[in-house]
Write a structure and sequence with these properties.
about 0% strand, mainly alpha, single chain
Length: about 130
Amino acid sequence: MKNLFMQRLLVSILLIVLGFIQVILDTSVGFNNGYIIVLLGGIILLFSTISNITSRKNKSLEKELAKEYDERDALIDGKVARFSLYILISEILILMFLTNFVVIPTNTALFIVLISLMIIEFGSRKYYTHVL
């Protein structure tokens, strides 16, 4: 995972500075949006600081567990791909059978296949992650 601490820090400082400038230069009587920008910059600053501190603590643990997860992820990906292929074949056969009786536009049939494959891939990945 890429370390985005510096980018988040710079964005939060930029938001805080822009918010203060807007608060100072805004002379309208109504609600000032500068306060929201300062608050958003503060939240991003807090989030980036906390995530940087916790990521430094977990670096050694990630290195130890990296080999085990690589083998496990490869096994899960293989099982998910095989399961998705079986479902795709059966779904295409069902759609081929249905098109003999009902007119289904090509775009609709492809959309059905894509949506069902995304759902199947997500569900099977969750299932194999919990089982293994």
